[in-house]
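Milestone 3.1: sequence recovery, worked example.
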């Protein structure tokens, strides 16, 4: 036990206290270093996020622009194809007809005479067929003269491209089309009961494609198959041409009559892109549509006996169908061209219908019609023996 004396003997050290050392300095340094690493990692992370966001935004934009360019390219290609095929406006198939009209497209009512047979030869009254090729030249079949002539637009002359010289080679061409693949004219030679191919390069070269057929009208689809209307058998046959020609009936063939499975004097034809067949059923005063593989037709224009009302036709002949399924037909005995909107119960007058005569707004028994690539309408005006051009007014 310590005594008071012991306590009094204790010497007090008066030295100043030693400075306190910072024992936490290493920890602080480590903390600072950790913060720097965190900030660095955070910057890297932010940078990566920015890059990812940029990629996410940029890639879809590039794809959209690429798709737009592709769509534009496709549209341009389609438009080019339309323009290219536009010149073949009268081949009897909509795959060759670029008639991108509307239901309200109109034509000027006063026509311009671009060709008159009376200027060149005697007066004849033939229901002559027409065809317009890619160079906007009209081929006209002159039935009584047993020849086909080529009329260049904007030129007051014509050339003979198929001529019998004698009637042993060609007699009464009732319809014509141009086969671009073989660069030849295919002629419905009614007088000699045959379908004949006539070269455009060598007018002396010709060959018989189909014989022993009472042809009235022709059409060709995009596969090169022929459709032929036979006035005696009262049907339309489909022909696959080759070493051994094959054919089968696609419309009519059930005798003369006005039932849906019958025809009465089938005349001009038209085949659309879906291989539906349009038949001008002349003596039934109507246009019939036979869809592919159908056994019965559908009345798509006329069919209410002969008459002058808008629901009627009278001995129609030439026909063209546009991309909407609207029908343009020469209403021969009513001296007018009619348009029947797809699904409509009555038609409307396109040109003519002002009585018979030779005025610029009149027609007299028009037999056929064609359109050029601009949409202008050409009509063969039978009794006036002229081709009238009606310029497109609005589309």
């Amino acid at each position: 036990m310590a005594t008071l004396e012991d306590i009094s003997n204790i010497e007090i050290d008066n030295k100043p206290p030693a400075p306190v050392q910072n024992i936490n300095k290493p920890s602080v340094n480590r903390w600072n270093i950790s913060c720097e690493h965190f900030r660095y990692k955070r910057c890297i992370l932010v940078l990566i996020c920015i890059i990812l966001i940029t990629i996410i935004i940029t890639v879809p934009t590039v794809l959209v622009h690429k798709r737009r360019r592709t769509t534009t390219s496709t549209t341009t290609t389609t438009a080019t194809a339309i323009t290219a095929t536009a010149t073949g406006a009268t081949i009897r198939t909509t795959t060759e007809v670029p008639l991108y009209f509307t239901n309200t497209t109109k034509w000027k009512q006063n026509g311009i005479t671009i060709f008159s047979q009376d200027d060149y030869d005697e007066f004849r009254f033939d229901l002559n067929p027409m065809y317009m090729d890619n160079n906007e030249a009209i081929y006209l079949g002159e039935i009584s003269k047993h020849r086909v002539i080529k009329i260049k637009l904007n030129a007051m002359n014509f050339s003979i491209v198929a001529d019998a010289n004698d009637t042993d080679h060609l007699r009464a061409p009732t319809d014509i089309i141009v086969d671009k693949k073989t660069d030849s004219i295919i002629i419905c030679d009614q007088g000699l009961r045959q379908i004949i191919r006539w070269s455009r390069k060598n007018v002396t070269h010709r060959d018989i494609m189909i014989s022993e057929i009472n042809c009235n009208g022709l059409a060709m689809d995009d596969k090169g198959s022929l459709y032929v209307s036979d006035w005696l058998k009262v049907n339309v046959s489909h022909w696959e041409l080759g070493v051994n020609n094959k054919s089968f009936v696609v419309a009519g063939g059930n005798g003369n009559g006005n039932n849906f499975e019958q025809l009465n004097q089938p005349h001009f034809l038209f085949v659309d892109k879906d291989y539906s067949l349009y038949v001008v059923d002349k003596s039934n005063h109507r246009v019939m549509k036979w869809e592919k593989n159908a056994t019965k037709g559908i009345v798509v224009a006329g069919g209410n006996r002969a008459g002058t009302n808008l629901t009627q036709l009278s001995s129609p002949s030439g026909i063209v169908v546009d991309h909407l399924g609207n029908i343009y037909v020469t209403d021969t005995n009513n001296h007018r061209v009619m348009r029947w909107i797809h699904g409509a119960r009555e038609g409307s007058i396109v040109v003519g219908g002002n009585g018979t005569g030779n005025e610029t707004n009149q027609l007299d028994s028009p037999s056929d019609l064609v359109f050029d690539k601009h949409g202008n309408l050409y009509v063969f005006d039978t009794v006036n023996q002229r081709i009238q051009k009606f310029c497109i007014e609005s589309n």
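Residues 1-26, 62-97 have pLDDT under 50 and may be disordered. Residues 112-390 form a domain with the Neuraminidase fold (CATH 2.120.10.30).
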